[in-house]
Amino acid sequence: MNRAARDSEHVMTGHLIVSDDNAIRVITMRRPEKKNAITRDMYRAMSDAIDSAQNDPAIRCIVITGGSGVFTAGNDLDDFLKDSTSGGGAPRASDAVTFLYSLVHNTKPLIAAVDGIAIGIGTTMLFHCDHVLAARTATFSTPFIHLGLVPEGASSLLAPRTMGHQRAFAMLVMGRTLSADEAREAGFVNTVVAPGHTEAEAGKVARDICALPAEAVALSRKLLKPPPEELTRRIDRESHLFAERLHSEEAIAAFQAFFTRKKE
């Protein structure tokens, strides 16, 4: 993507870079030392970047990327363990849910450039995107069940609609990982490209969309999607169960086992 364009602006917030290149807003997760694991601050900054684009007619398209080699490892599990053992849990949940609400209420075409791993919310956020490009080496996994948790991000509603119940069950309930080609076959990845080329290709798609009549695009996009209220209702239901599960014996044991393995 032409980041050097004279009219591009870059704003760095913690581990997030937001840059406007002509009519395209690019949101880049930049926390390579943690495989772009998403912190509370990152959730808030991503929400702001999406929300502030809504009433800006100059922004015609939004691209979400993790840069080269990785998309995101999902929620920062250190935050998770603190929440699951603290008796709290609401702050993490509310920041993630605020981000998901921003995705639901977003009216701009949304493109994801996935160059590497997409774990947990890294995969479930893709069901809110309109066009997804993945590197050949990308992998998609939602290991909620292994942590004693339930799916989030309205994925329990959107994944079966996209790929059918059986594939959604294998991914969301059994925790099976999908390759880029399998994700394309399942219907939530549009195009598989060479590693390192996802952002450039996403830029081309965004420019194609920007060349279309804006109002017709917005109306058509809205027709294709479930009503926002239906999605937010499902997100709330999932979040309620997710928060309950965080304090379950299953989840606490799974997290402790995970961190013990990590230390070995």
UniProtKB/TrEMBL annotation:
It is an enzyme of class 4 (lyase). This is Enoyl-CoA hydratase. The lineage of its organism: Bacteria, Pseudomonadati, Pseudomonadota, Alphaproteobacteria, Hyphomicrobiales. It comes from the Bacteria. It comes from Nitrobacter hamburgensis (strain DSM 10229 / NCIMB 13809 / X14). Belongs to the enoyl-CoA hydratase/isomerase family. The keyword Isomerase applies. Keywords: Isomerase, Lyase, Peroxisome. InterPro entries: ClpP/crotonase-like_dom_sf, ECH/Chromodomain_protein, Enoyl-CoA_hydra/iso, Enoyl-CoA_hydra_C. Its main location: other. Its EC number is 4.2.1.17. Gene3D superfamilies: 2-enoyl-CoA Hydratase, Chain A, domain 1, Lyase 2-enoyl-coa Hydratase, Chain A, domain 2. The keyword Lyase applies. It holds the Pfam family ECH_1. One of its GO terms (molecular function) is delta(3)-delta(2)-enoyl-CoA isomerase activity.
